[in-house]
């Protein structure tokens, strides 16, 4: 049984004061981690303060990191420092990082390994590079960005990874994928993981849908068998709406 995962990605929004007030506002409104794992990814400028003011089961996450632990990499975020702060999750390979900062599959794979090396878990984002190939009599599902991101990742680590399917045309547009299309994408990701590792590992990995998720469409998305949660953008900027997402089991 995979614990639902409700994630938010603030991107480059809010201020330190707004981030602090957000965490304080939702402190008594987040469900227990045994019921729903709730995660907010924020700017590295806000993380320490959010951790200090967080009194709920909320996990504070990082939006990005570099693949080296330390060194002459001006402006980058150290995964080692994030881990020492108490961060558990790091978003890796978001479509905006790929598009605006030209992150390659090889770079993203290095970041995934760095996150695991520092005892954290990656939220691996992928777009819709989906298809299947035939190798003799065996047909395998292939999600190219996921396949590249998890190269040389041990099965013992992979079972703790989170994968987010984010169609680029749906991110920030207000247009979400129909629930059956979102389910198909998540299903193909799970089948790809099964082909690379095993059904056992694939059934432990939580797969999220991201792309204009809100309190109105989350119920239909969460009914799908291979959608274990969501990664919301705009909807996560409002404490009230984020609380609605986190409590999707108790709202209509």
TrEMBL record:
This is Triosephosphate isomerase. It comes from Fructilactobacillus myrtifloralis. Signal peptide: none annotated. The active site is at residues 94, 166. Keywords: Cytoplasm, Gluconeogenesis, Glycolysis, Isomerase. GO terms for molecular function: triose-phosphate isomerase activity. It comes from the Bacteria. It catalyses: D-glyceraldehyde 3-phosphate = dihydroxyacetone phosphate. Homodimer. Pfam families: TIM. Substrate binds at residues 9-11, 172, 212. It is found in: Cytoplasm.
